[in-house]
Amino acid sequence: MTQKEELAALKARVAELEAKAKPPKPFEPEPPWHFDPTANMSMPPSALREMVNAIPDNVIRDIAMRDNRAPTGRPGVIPGSQQPASPRPSAGDGTGWAREIPIGLSPHQRYVDAQLDAQDAKDRQERIQQAASVEGARKVAEQSEKLQRLIEQNARLMEKLK
Fold first, then answer.
1. Which pLDDT score is estimated for 92?
2. pLDDT band, very low/low/confident/very high, at 118 (cuts 50, 70, 90)
3. Cα separations (Å) of 136 from 50, 98, 142?
4. Cα distance between the two ends of the chain
């Protein structure tokens, strides 16, 4: 190896070592990605040309001129004063606010109360009937026990008589 080749090899080796010894590049985050639904939309130039040629220039000019001359103030349908346009009565005192409705029971609550009272009466009647049937069953059981005792006494007396 000649000195020139050796020098070139050493320079290459030094450059390689310097590149390895360099501090790493600082972290740079990617810019945030935002969804754009129109990002990949495109139209062939021929279709765009056909669309442009479909409408004459004077029509576009008339539309632009009409838009420039359009009124920028209050439309004519809305009255200029604060008075109502028709003599119909307003919800409140003419300010546009409705009257205050107090918080409380609904006026229709009486219907709900009547339904609940009727159901309560039905339930009470049903409980009374259940209690009566239980009481009747208890009385029947008592009488059955008495009858059973009488039958047993009668059987004992019959045996004594024999």
1. 57
2. very high
3. 98, 63, 10
4. 151
Helices (H), the chain: 3-21, 45-54, 57-68, 109-161
**Distance separating alpha carbons of residues 47 and 27, to the nearest angstrom:** 45
| 3-class DSSP assignment, residue 136 | helix
pLDDT tens figures, 36-78: 888 888 888 899 889 888 988 888 888 888 877 776 766 666 6
Written as six digits, the tokens of 149 are 């005792």
H or E stretch including 82?
A: none
- Specify the residue for token string 């050493």: 10
- Which residue reads 């945030």 in tokens? 32
